[in-house]
Amino acid sequence: MTVEQTANPLETLRRLCLELPETTERLSHGEPTWFVRGKQTFVTYANHHHDDRLAFWCAAPAGMQQALVDSDPKRFFVPPYVGHRGWIGMWLDVILDWVEIAELVVDACRTIAPRKLISELDTRDSV
To answer: Which is nearest to 48 in space by CA: 26, 35, 31, 34?
Structure first.
């Protein structure tokens, strides 16, 4: 995928998340949310404030949140509720770089996943 405006970013985000091993989706706080092994949240779609801004929030490795927000505050933000844990918020109503988003989703999964699952991701990524 490339940099583009997507008609339905939720469907593209869903596909990226569900391509990862042992990932499930269910509603959490009224929003589509993706879990590792059905337990640990790693990405959530964010439209529950209904403020005409679509976004997603994801887990992130230490230090990444501040680096991304500082680099491009028009695209990235510290999300409410989970921002204190280092999560990243990214607006979906702007021109999107789906390669970058795919990398963020994988990083989010790696941040939350147990070691065995990280090993599976490493094997998958090396192919």
So the answer is: 31
Q: Which amino acid is at 48?
A: H
pLDDT tens for 89-113 read 999 988 999 999 999 999 999 999 9
Helices (H), ranges, 54-114: 64-71, 98-112
Distance separating alpha carbons of residues 66 and 46, to the nearest angstrom: 20
Q: Is the pLDDT of residue 122 over 70?
A: yes
pTM to 2 decimal places:
0.89
Domains of the chain: 3-126 (3.90.1150.30)
3-state secondary structure of 104: helix
Q: How confident is the model at residue 6 (pLDDT cuts 50, 70, 90)?
A: low
Three-state SS at 24: strand
In contact, 92 and 43? CB cutoff 8 Å: no
